[in-house]
Amino acid sequence: MSRVTRREFLGQAIADSGSMAMAQQNTQQNTSSDIPRRPLGKTGLQASIIGMGGYHLGSADDLSTAKRMVDEAIDAGVNFFDNAWDYHQGRSEEWLGAALKGKRDKVILMTKVCTHGRTKDVGMKMLEESLRRLQTDHLDVWQIHEVIYYNDPDLIFAPNGVAEALDQAKREGKVRFVGFTGHKDPQIHLRMLRHGFAFDTVQMPLNAFDASFRSFEQNVLPEANRLGMAVFGMKSLGGSGEMVRKGGIKVEDGLRYAMSLPVSLTISGMDSPEVLHQNLSIARGFKPLNDQEMHAIRDRCRFEASDGRYELFKTTKKYDSDEGRKMHDFPPVAQLPA
Amino acid sequence: MQPANGGIPRRSFGRTSLQISALGFGGHHLGDAEDQPTATRLVHEAIDGGINFFDNCWEYHRGKTEDWMGSALRGKRNQVFLMTKVCTHGRDKDLALRMLEQSLNRLQTDHLDLWQIHGVSFENDADLFIRPNGAAEALEQAKKQGKVRFVGFTGHKDPAVHLKMLNTGFHFDALQMPLNPFDGSFFSFQQQVVPEAQRRGMAVLGMKPLCGAGDPVKKGALTPEEALRYAMSVPGVTVTITGMDKPDVLRQNLRIAQNFAPMQREEMKALENRVRSVAADGRFELYKVSLKYDNPEARLAHEFPLDMQQKEVKEMMRSTENTGHPYPQLEKAK
Predict the structure, then answer these.
(1) Cα–Cα distances in Å, from B48 out to A13, B23, B84, B250?
(2) Cystine design at B27: which of A236, A253, B56, B103 (Cβ 3.0–4.6 Å)?
(3) pTM of the predicted protein model
(4) If you measure CA to CA, which chain A residue comes closest to B307?
């Protein structure tokens, strides 16, 4: 498979969105039932405002369900696919790779490297594994996964750290764009940005509760926007729907809040066709909320936002992977669930 | 209050003339003692060894540690400075006062020397504390009624949360926080909170000198003596509270405290530097970066998930016979 040039890619993306619109018995114009696309920072790519989360894909019933979901998402106009080297010990990447066979060029494919402080070489080895599982010769976006420990920026930018792997992979044409992700503390993100490394993308939790608690929206998003980076929002509903199940927010409001922020897209986990359908219907014809509506949603969430009870990824260990815990010498999930 | 002093240094409690032993007896671990006679012996030996500061908490082992300490202190109540904590975790004044009555009953006394708000961990705890009908009013009332002499608060999570408590403007006599070589460079209470407390003339109670369960000692990062001496040497600290669930742990700590000579600044710095790389991600200070040390009461009041493997949760489920109504379980006053 040859690498897609930027021009070819754009042409492809435009053609896709056209055929997708027809498939939905709508006009070829950008109509009320298209999933809108936005520029992916300065990359020249256009991404659907909703992206398919890789972790939850690996939680689907089986491979054939996962394949159906990916197909359906692409047909509906979703062109951004998230993943990570350590999701379900590789299953998420394998399933996505199998599902994308023959469709690789239609999508923006991202995965993440899970060095957690280890060296560049470990990063490059993980990249080869990710490429093999994803059945492709290049990634569109490769991000450093889970930058959540307070000394991670130091480890990442240490001599021979994983930042050098990002450079090398880009030079070798194995990845087009690079970035980092994390769900813990805006201060850690800001520390990463202060290194001045040429990150193209950055991923962070963005939701109606985040707005008033250790806020990425307040502290990191403006900085990333200023730098012209592509911003991927995540955890729009708390990571496992906590904000809906307990917080009383409607799925629609939660997702719409996240997608209305100045982001390229919102990555959402979908582990069943039902969840996929629900998200697609919210994303189709999406119109951003106005300031007043945003304000009203934030206000409704403010009290329960104030201790982080539905943002457990910030306030507990619950969302911190075993891979990272191992490298930082923390007890595994089984011993320290939160 | 000047019993036979086994050589453990004593320090003034805040700006009062009360003299507190530099080593304090942690209540939680008392409930981990093999049985009640062992616990009683531990308390007596501690007093004989020169410890006069006793820590406890309404929710430790669901009252067992208060019960055990209360009976161990029978006839010795006036020899010690007795502290316990109230576990409202943001809830109302009335609940706090009912907890106080229970603590007094269990501890077999008519007054506490110090009553503290337990486990101020969450970022909205200060707001919930100071609100109308919040626990602040209970502290005031209990003091006015002579049921407690001094009041304070404790927490192990984030110096910023402690500072928020101080910024409520409420008059606290004491506050409690983790002080150890790891804290020296990571979300540092020593750097951020101690100077502020000193400025206000508060008593500074250090805890978790060995990080809660001795992990850095088990993993060879430092020795108990280094850890304890460091904590007791933090400038401005009044007492270092540490858990002692076995006679040999008590004896080891007594020995260190009885022979205590403060670490010099350079020695403390050297120790901080030695552990700096493992301090930097909080691996030894799980109370700052995880829920591990947050008790079920705190989690329930804030609707955070319980950990079914946690000892406290198992105790809670046992004692409530899985009714699904773990809280409040306040018995009527005896």
Answers:
(1) 80, 13, 21, 12
(2) B56
(3) 0.90
(4) A337
